[in-house]
Design goal:
The two termini are 22 Å apart. This protein has helices at residues 35-45, 102-113, 175-186, 212-217, 222-229, 237-242, and strands at residues 2-6, 9-13, 26-32, 50-58, 61-68, 74-79, 89-96, 118-124, 137-144, 147-154, 167-172, 190-191, 196-198, 204-209. 23% of the residues lie in helices and 36% in strands.
Length: 243
Amino acid sequence: MVAFNLHGQHFTILNGGPQFKFTPAISLYVVCRTAEEANLLWSRLVEGGSTMMPLQAYPWSACYGWLADKYGLHWQVALHTEEDFQQKISPAMVFMGNRQHLGEESIRFYTSLFPNSRTNFIAHFEEGEQGGYPGSLKFVMYQLNGQTFVAMGNSHQHAWDFNEAVSFQVACDTQDEIDHYWNAFANGGTEEQCGWVRDRFGVWWQVFPAILPKLLADKERAGRVMLAFMQMQKFDLDMLLKA
């Protein structure tokens, strides 16, 4: 496991094995302030990768492109003003085909679940527009606990969907917090081992005690802590502290 920061955003990488493949269902949306910045970032990311949408002018951005880097992770590079986005890198979810209608429903659910959350901007498809039926979700920018997320909808059907290759971590200070998020995600979803849970929209989350990294860094306790949580689905904070 490797934890690091990119432009103030926290990321964790786990070596889960070749069965977990990145898909375009979740990408990283990167905001650039100049075309020069967008071109430089694009040239570095696309090296050894592949292009889904070339970097060029589109109706929604004077400079935009979508690529998969050499590791398979998807990125959207876009030129925006300071007023549009304050966050440099934002997770972006895509709800495709017969799941397009779930996009707006998921946002209502997530923003009701997390504190300090709101919808900043939302656009719907209009009559005659390609990519969705009138009134369906086209693009939305929203915040969960102060962090910006993006979601898009499109009526085209694809074989890919959300999977474990990209998940979102929720660090909790108390058992009540763990119960709150776990129970909400598990309702209509799928509970897995070690704090992993898939919600009813197909998105994967890791709900874990914020103190867990500290416990695992304690050489004397790490083995017992790991043995304890490997047997859990939802984390039991009291059991971990007693391990």
